[in-house]
Amino acid sequence: MTTRAWAGPTTPRRRELLGFAAVGLLAYAVDLALFTCLRGPAGLGPLTAKALSFVAACSVAYAGNALGTYRDRRVGGGLRPYAAFFLVNLAGAAVQLLCLAVSHYGLGLTSQRADTVSGAVVGMALATVLRFWGTRTWVFRAEGRVGSWTG
Questions:
Q1: What is the CA radius of gyration of the chain?
Q2: Rounded distance, CA 134 to CA 5, Å?
Q3: Is the whole model's pTM more than 0.85, yes or no?
């Protein structure tokens, strides 16, 4: 009889994925709420609003992952872990901004709803995969792990 790596509610990989998802949902809520306020009542443009909401959400996500999901992993001191996390999230933000720019400027879908869907839903979903891989590979790397989360 074989066992699967994801079997059971308490496997380390399952805890990691669930912790990352919970922190991500909190950061997503910060991103979405701030983007909506900045885009709507504050009257900022879509790319400026997304850039500002990203910085706030990135800081929330780093704190949540460092203090929660990956609290048992040593990441070194100084600004290096946050800088690496920020760079991984910049790559994710580029994915989100590209989705928003294509929708808003390329396809002409300029309503607040279209901007929210393209930047905060479609872009976020695509960026999350990149962020999970980058976060566990370059920021909160387990001892001896080279990078793959599947092996």
A1: 17
A2: 21
A3: no
